[in-house]
Specification:
alpha/beta, Rossmann fold, 6 helices, globular
């Protein structure tokens, strides 16, 4: 039997460098995947267990509507895998404007807070669930000139750990993976002179997420898991 057979996974940020790899890994593991992105379509993943759910997590009501749609379609949500995020930097904290700060908080923290707040009641009613997020090494080992990004990713870690503490008695786990620089097309374009062999392969992150969503990891809760690649 496949690792995630009969599981229903809601993957936000399901399209893109990491999202595509994670979505394929969950499908290969046997899950029914409801993939969320602003421009996602059924044709992005030709698989009978894939459902495209175009949406933008712009506020709490949008997140609640997304979860309602997912439950209406599949009946439940066994795992939420939150991949939405983005980087902006190159400026010191003293030179970072409010728009840049708001953008980093919206992308890397508020979107996770909103979708988690929307899915927890469903998982509590079910009596089980796994909430997973992908953060960044920068959350615990901050690099200079990325203050807003670092702070947003650190807030994401605390959100996941809080969710773990609040819901452990309801059969719900919450864990976060912190990768170093990932080997994605966008990152290669941004650092053409880098040694890509030292970067984290998206498949490694996807494999970890599949395990954390499975019954084999039912007792793993509140974990902050580094995946730094050979550049550690």
């Amino acid at each position: 039997m496949s690792t995630l057979a009969n599981k229903v996974a809601l993957i936000t940020g399901a399209k893109g460098g990491l999202g595509t790899t994670v979505t394929r890994a969950f499908l290969e593991a046997g899950a029914t995947v409801m993939g969320v992105s602003r421009s996602i379509a059924a044709s992005d993943f030709s698989h009978p267990r894939f459902v495209a759910m175009p949406a933008e997590l712009k506020n709490l009501e949008a997140a609640r509507q997304l979860v309602r749609n997912a439950v209406e379609h599949a009946g439940r949500v066994d795992a939420l895998i939150h991949l939405v995020g983005g980087w902006a930097g190159g400026r010191a904290v003293s030179e970072t404007d409010e728009a840049a700060l708001d953008r980093m908080l919206d992308m890397n923290f508020k979107s996770a807070f909103q979708v988690a707040a929307a899915v927890v009641p469903v998982m509590r009613q079910q009596g089980h669930g796994a909430i997973l997020a992908v953060g960044s090494r920068s959350a615990v080992e901050p690099a200079p000139l990325s203050g807003a990004y670092n702070a947003a990713k650190a807030a994401l870690v605390m959100l996941i750990r809080t969710l773990a503490a609040e819901n452990q008695e309801q059969g719900i786990s919450a864990n976060i993976v912190l990768p170093g620089t990932m080997d994605t097309p966008a990152n290669r374009a941004g650092s053409p002179e880098a040694d890509y062999s030292k970067w984290v392969r998206p498949e490694q992150v996807a494999s970890m997420l599949v395990h954390l969503a499975s019954d084999a990891a039912r007792q793993v809760n509140g974990a902050v898991i580094p995946v730094y690649g050979s550049a550690a």
